[in-house]
Amino acid sequence: MGSSLSCTFHLNDQDYSCHVEDQIIPENDDLNLSGKHVDKMKDKDVTTVLFNNCTITKIPKGLTKLYPKLESLVIHNSKITEITKDHLTEYKSLKKLDLSGQEIEFLPADLFEGFENLEHVDFSKNKLKLIEPKIFDGLNKLKFVNLEFNTHYFLLYSKDSDNPLNTNLQEFKKKLVIKYPSSLVMTNKEIEMRDLTDNPNDEDEQHIAVKISESVLIANLKAFYEHDKDFRDFTITIYDRFFRVHKSIIAARSPTLAEILRNNPDAENLNLVDIPVGIFEKILKFIYTAELPQDEGTNYLHLFAAAGKLKIEDLKNYAASKVKKEINTENALDIIKLSNKYEHYGLRQNVFDMLKKKYSEIKFKDEWANDVEKLREVMNFVKKKEEIILKLGTEFENLMS
Questions:
Q1: What are the CA-CA distances from residue 315 to residues 245, 283, 285, 373, 394 (Å)?
Q2: How many angstroms separate the CA atoms of 15 and 32, rounded?
Q3: What are the Cα distances from residue 89, in Å, to 50, 62, 86, 110?
Q4: How far apart (Å, rounded) are the C-alpha atoms in residues 221 and 258?
Q5: What is residue 283's three-state secondary structure?
Q6: In what order do the strands lie in the sheet with 15-21?
Q7: Which residues, including other chains, have CB under 8 Å from residue 133's CB and lie 6 or more apart?
Q8: Where does the chain hold its CATH 3.80.10 domain(s)?
Q9: Coil vs helix vs strand at 16
Q10: pTM above 0.70, yes or no
């Protein structure tokens, strides 16, 4: 008789899952999970099992006996240190394997032999040092690999064209996305395909070392941002909020802050009154972690202005790409003014292109960008035309109803 543990069942978008939280998972016994099912659902309907913050040192056994339709196995924040193909023998029908937040250092080449349906692999927040060649051979359905926030990593892929299981390399590169902090601007980047069975030259070795160094640096800075309290030596104040920061880090990322600190070497604090608190929180996180704000509540025009003021060019350009999608006649004048102020003339041109497309009879001139009254006249004309069109549309709907 296997070990019995309690779980809670959840039904979401056709995915029926069993969640196990904060429990000790035995190593050798087949598991027996019990809990109250959602109405009309049974064990045979379970497609996902999630273990969160459990004490686990090896992949659990017996889950496919309980749940024959199991497609996703997710284990977060445990203590697994090793994984081999023998640990995964019963799980070859999985579409998703997520072992983030473990202590795994090594992934063997034969780990996923026989996994014909595997689409999603996540080994983020482990301690990976080596991934052997050919580990992804034969995984024709693989779409996503996450190795983010590992101390080191080598992602190796066989280029052996004679291997009958090997997918076409170029097609594989198009499909497969690896997420890791490789750039201050992008968080997703196409996977690097390397085969260390070749003899890489010095340039290749240097390229690998650079990628590892970037990953380690950003991971360390993120840990500093999230956990360090001892070495913060400067305070930035915005209204009634106080942000303790590392002077050298913020100076390295913002020329504006660097200039302020250079001119005031003995200063212990700085008052920033014209940046919204919520925007500065996102900027500070970006400075340390290179993580871009993705939440729906972000005011990207405010972010653009703040990044421009602080001269954080990569963040300013990212915010501009978001603002471009939000241009309308209500914000066009503000966008043009800020584009001029922070020298992003591509964004200014986007506004002019939008207005030209809507109202071709307006003859736009670049010098208007510095003529506030002329721009206001243009915007009033555009809004008046829109109001007329809207009124005519409403009257037409009334006639038809």
A1: 19, 8, 11, 30, 42
A2: 20
A3: 18, 11, 5, 12
A4: 18
A5: helix
A6: 8-12, 15-21, 48-52, 72-76, 96-98, 120-122, 144-146, 177-179, 188-190
A7: 109, 156, 157, 158, 195, 196, 197
A8: 3-214
A9: strand
A10: no
| Exposure letters 10-40 (e unless 16+ CB within 10 A, then b) | eeeeeebbbbbeeeebbeeeebebeeeeeee
Residue 88: predicted pLDDT = 95
Give the residue, 359 or 302, on which the prediction is more confident: 302
Strand, helix or coil for residue 256:
helix
- By mean pLDDT, which of 233-247, 259-273, 327-341, 355-369 is the weakest? 355-369
Query: What is residue 350's predicted lDDT score, i.e. its pLDDT?
Result: 87
Of the listed ranges 158-172, 220-234, 323-337, the one predicted with least confidence: 158-172
Phi/psi at 103 (5° precision):
-130, 35
Report the amino acid identity of residue 311: K
CB-CB neighbours of 68 under 10 Å: 12
Of 87, 96, 141, 88, the closest CA to residue 123 belongs to: 96
- List pLDDT tens digits, range 62-97: 999 999 999 999 999 898 999 999 999 999 999 999
Q: How many CB atoms lie within 10 A of CB 376?
A: 11
Residue 251 CA, distance from chain mean position: 25
Q: Which two tokens stand for residue 228?
A: 């360090």
Token reading at 118? 């595997």
Q: Which fold has domain 3-214?
A: 3.80.10
Distance CA 330, CA 379 (A): 8
pLDDT of residue 82: 92
Residue 45 DSSP label: G
List C-alpha distances in Å: 196 to 107, 155, 161, 188.
Answer: 15, 10, 15, 24
CATH of domain 283-400: 3.30.710
Residue limits of CATH 3.30.710 in the chain = 283-400
Q: Considering Cα of 226, then 230, then 231, then 234, what sign does the dihedral take?
A: positive
Cα end-to-end distance, the chain, whole Å: 71
Amino acid 226: pLDDT: 73
Q: For residue 390, with 0-12 CB atoms within 10 Å meaning exposed, 13-18 middle and 19 or more buried, which class applies?
A: exposed
Cβ 87 vs Cβ 80: under 8 Å:
no
Evaluate whether 62 touches 85 at the Cβ level (below 8 Å): no
